[in-house]
Amino acid sequence: MLPEPTIRRSLRAITRELSPAISRCELTHLAREPIDYQRAVSQHEAYVALLESLGLTVTRLRAELELPDAVFVEDTAVVVDELAVITRPGAATRRLEIAAVRDALQPWRPIAEITAPGTLDGGDVLQVGRTVYVGLSSRSNSEGAAQLGRLLAPFAYAVETIEVHGCLHLKSAVTAVSDTLLLINPAWCDSAAFAGVDTIEIDPSEPHAANILRLDDAVIADAAFPRTAENMRARGVTVHSVNLSELAKAEGAVTCCSLIFRVAPENHGSVRAQEPS
Ligand code: CIR
User: How far apart are CA 211 and CA 74, in angstroms?
Assistant: First the structure.
């Protein structure tokens, strides 16, 4: 008898190659420092290779010289099982990123979109079961959250807003290990908003550690945060590490560099999303 495929076998990822213009990226909470482009490319390639080694099929979109932040593909869409919502990123410089992502998601999901005056970055959207938390940040506004709520309501998702302070996105402050366990930096968002859900706090010496990428039975974390990784392992979480130190200078982290979504197992790897020319 064949072994059961792991659930992760049906996960796909969309990533986008790194633009040499990354040195002109948006920055909100960090001072600009030089980014070593070649090292950043190598780190990003290692990230994609890790996703592939863990069984995901990855669609890699091309970089564009005029889109410095396009590698942070997470911000351009919110993908749930039933629908892909193309966002309207809060930074106007990032709005041209959405076209290629819409094309790449088209084969996999019905498409909806956030429209003006709504703004929404995918980095502000945290799905935990049928609850979708939206961070109200410098990028995402209450109109964007309300639009997302209306789009997801027919599928029985409840959208809740939460204030974010001191960091770029909600998922800088909190991410999900599973539907019942969150990793949180309580200094950057109000943990009371997640009452009833179990939480692990980041190690206080690692304020940026709360951003982890959830897969079905493991997480990916930046190797820069070993103490928080140990806290997770102590709770039985499988943690894979990757070094994204150059992208961290652009205020990027592990969730930002991919859009992860589930496909029916029979479609896994069989259909290529259209890639922009
Ligand atoms: C920006 O400021 O938009 C980019 N430099 C970083 C975006 C990181 N994205 C994310 O955390 N989801």
Answer: 13
Is residue 122 within 8 A of residue 77, CB to CB? The reply is yes
Residue 25 DSSP symbol: -
Which residue is closest in CA terms to ligand 1's atom 2? 26
C-alpha of residue 154 to centroid of ligand 1, in Å = 29
Q: Which residues pair with 261 in a beta bridge?
A: 12
Are the C-beta atoms of residues 202 and 225 closer than 8 Å to each other?
yes
Of all atoms in ligand 1, which is nearest to the CA of residue 123? 12
Does pLDDT of 62 surpass 50? yes
The domain spans of the chain are 8-24+35-264
Query: Taking 70 as the threshold, does the pLDDT of residue 169 lie above it?
Result: yes
Residue 46 has pLDDT above 80, yes or no: yes
If pLDDT is split at 50, 70 and 90, which confidence band does 276 have? very low
The pTM of the full predicted model, rounded to 2 decimals, is 0.93
Ligand 1, from 23, 32, 69, 257: best to mutate by most atoms within 8 Å of Cβ?
A: 69
- At the topology level, CATH places domain 8-24+35-264 in L-arginine/glycine Amidinotransferase; Chain A (3.75.10)
Residue of 75, 87, 88, 97 best suited for mutating to test ligand 1, as the one with most atoms within 8 Å of CB: 75
CA 251–ligand 1 middle distance (angstroms): 5
